[in-house]
Amino acid sequence: MEKFKITPVGIVRKSDREVILEIFPEFKDAIDGLHEGDWIKLILWFHKNDTPEKRRVLKVHPYNNPQNPLTGVFATRSPVRPNPLATYTVQIHHIDENKLYIDWIDADDETPIADIKILVERLDCPTGREVEGWELDIRSARQIGGLSLIPRISEHLDELEEVSPEEYIALIVELGTKTTYLTARELIELIKALEEVYEKLPVEIKDKLKSHSS
């Protein structure tokens, strides 16, 4: 079986009341784009549980309570597992150079950080999928400021004439962790609203925009 290498990108610094993600200098540029208030998915490597014996444990008593029935580790949050990865959903409260100050977590001080990803409601907190992942035109997605615009692929629909503009989801809009699904009708209304906003811009601003785009 092929083995994979995980390179720590930082380390957890922890006191009684404060948790800091200290990112190593060579990975500092990866912080660019994160902001205070952002929610992130934090992936840690529980190095203290990384032993051959603990990697072979496939069933545990949840919460380490022997009164709970033995359960497969994939159905638990146990730190003991074939690959001792731990995931957390936390909020960034402050950023200072290469240090991210986050919510309190139960990880030990000096726990290696395997990765950090921005939390996306559509992917990480699904309550009901309006559009399946395979229906999204990811290659055509655009990021403008803090907005992510992901159009929907329409080629797979066989009888589009039977779908009304009020029902057809045309665009997925993500702002931070929040996701909104726009129907074709709502998309047209948004375009009209943006055109009205543009028309109200000062003439000097519009002239500069035109000169930059030409």
Automatic annotation (TrEMBL):
SUPFAM superfamilies: YaeB-like
Gene3D superfamilies named among the record's database cross-references: YaeB-like
One Pfam family of this chain: TrmO_N
S-adenosyl-L-methionine as UniProt keyword: yes
InterPro entries on file: TrmO-like_N (IPR023370), UPF0066_cons_site (IPR023368), YaeB-like (IPR040372), YaeB-like_sf (IPR036413), YaeB_N_sf (IPR036414)
Keyword S-adenosyl-L-methionine: yes
Keywords from the UniProt entry: S-adenosyl-L-methionine
Record-linked CDD domains: UPF0066 (cd09281)
Domain TsaA-like intervals: 6-128
PROSITE patterns: TSAA_1 (PS01318), TSAA_2 (PS51668)
Similarity field: Belongs to the tRNA methyltransferase O family.
Matching NCBIfam families: tRNA_TsaA (TIGR00104)
Protein name: TsaA-like domain-containing protein
Originating species: Thermococcus paralvinellae
